[in-house]
């Protein structure tokens, strides 16, 4: 027999594409390998022409940008976004533990303790994403993945809502999702709130995890809708009273009286064995790739090819790296969500320190000073614990100081909100360069 010819490998930039993991009418998901560091990823491939044809560019940009900001241990992470002339490539964290749906299909109902643990992780993820203005609208066990340690990861969060339309009434009006998991208000044409409809779907998932079957399941679609609209279902005998009480408040057909996530977090049954999510130190999130994907610039495009990527020489590497750019000496916030910020001042260092303390204390921060360093710690607990900020004053020249503020704990978006209020109290010490007057037009 003749020797077998090695299969050609398709590459997209630094990624080597492998088998197809999933496919839908809008996109295809492929397994891939980062050839630079060996990491495995999943790449969602979207038809670029379809995006422009349906005028969905701004919606997709907004959704992807928001998703890049979501760094939660129970949500699939977007690593970067690439584009070719015909495709958009969304590079995602690869999770290899399978779907939660597979676990139910194989083993049937879960023990209540195990179902509660997954439900706790689901609620944490959904709550965090809602705080970023992202609604899933298609929550179901098939979209809940497990990593090798059994940690739940919500997939396609926000990307399933690419075509959503929020009207002037602030409500969504696109009926979407899997019928069995859809909230009653989604089935009507009166509009619905993305938060409460996601909560309903979470309640259906909890029922399925604990019962091993759906609360609403009819062959006839209209019969199914009638049951959903009335929340017409019965509990199996093995459900505990605590589980039944919570599910009844979630599967309330009236979204205005349906339990909220803050109320779920305080529920006695929910809180058993509850462990808040553990957040690792955040990295700065760069949104430049999202803008580049939808620009007309051909420089940013990648190509699908059957060969090894072109190697980059040292000069190209340095010229493209943000770390080597002199622009980093000054703030350039465009497209970058930072955990630190800087400003310059012509005031004496001791005056700057006093002003920082005066501005921080009314915002509820405890201040600890040492030489020209200062630690600010918030007295309120945010989404990732207490916000804490380190500040340091550097002398650039005898009459010029640079002040650095760096988030050392807590949530990045909360740090940005803090800095916006905090900077109002520093107007007297922040140095502003004189504007260069424009030349009069001839």
Summary keywords:
3 domains; Transferase(Phosphotransferase), domain 1; TATA-Binding Protein; 14 helices; alpha+beta; 22% strand; 442 residues; Phosphorylase Kinase, domain 1; 31% helix; five-stranded antiparallel β-sheet
Describe this structure in words.
The chain has three domains: 84 residues, Phosphorylase Kinase, domain 1 (2-Layer Sandwich); 172 residues, Transferase(Phosphotransferase), domain 1; 85 residues, TATA-Binding Protein. It is of the alpha+beta class. α4 runs antiparallel to α6. The radius of gyration is 26 Å and the shape is globular.
In short:
This protein has helices spanning 48-53, 57-69, 100-107, 112-131, 184-187, 194-211, 221-230, 241-250, 261-265, 268-271, 288-293, 314-320, 349-360, 412-424, and strands at residues 11-12, 15-23, 27-34, 40-47, 78-83, 87-93, 144-146, 152-154, 285-286, 304-305, 336-337, 340-345, 365-370, 373-382, 385-397, 400-409. The strands form 4 sheets. Strands 5-6-4-3-2-1-10 form a 7-stranded antiparallel beta sheet.
